[in-house]
Amino acid sequence: MATAHQRALEQDDRRLALICKALSHPVRVQILRYVLRHPGCIVNQIVLHMPEDGPHAQSTISQHLRVLREAGLLETYDDGAAVCHYVNPDSLVWLREYLEQL
């Protein structure tokens, strides 16, 4: 039977794997970087400011945003008809601290 400490480590390992999976695509890394520099941005702004390594449809960017949200890296809030995105700083702090412990 696993101890509470072992279960906590397993949960942290799952969280790390989810975050790493979210960051495993270069477009998602670019999106995270953009949102860090432009908190409160909307998906159309992200689409317009993606590097020119190919056109990125809004639906594709929206899917990338979903993965980042599911990993806990991004949060959203509704501003009328727009959904604004910002980085969850607690997740970045957690990631940095967890990686330092490895």
UniProtKB/TrEMBL annotation:
GO molecular function: DNA binding; DNA-binding transcription factor activity
Protein's UniProt keywords contain Transcription regulation: yes
SMART domains: HTH_ARSR
Coiled-coil residue spans: none
Start and end residues of each HTH arsR-type domain: 8-102
CDD domains in UniProt: HTH_ARSR
UniProt key word Glycoprotein: no
Origin superkingdom: Bacteria
Protein name: Regulatory protein ArsR
Biological source species: Chloroflexus aurantiacus (strain ATCC 29366 / DSM 635 / J-10-fl)
Phylogenetic placement of the source organism: Bacteria, Bacillati, Chloroflexota, Chloroflexia, Chloroflexales
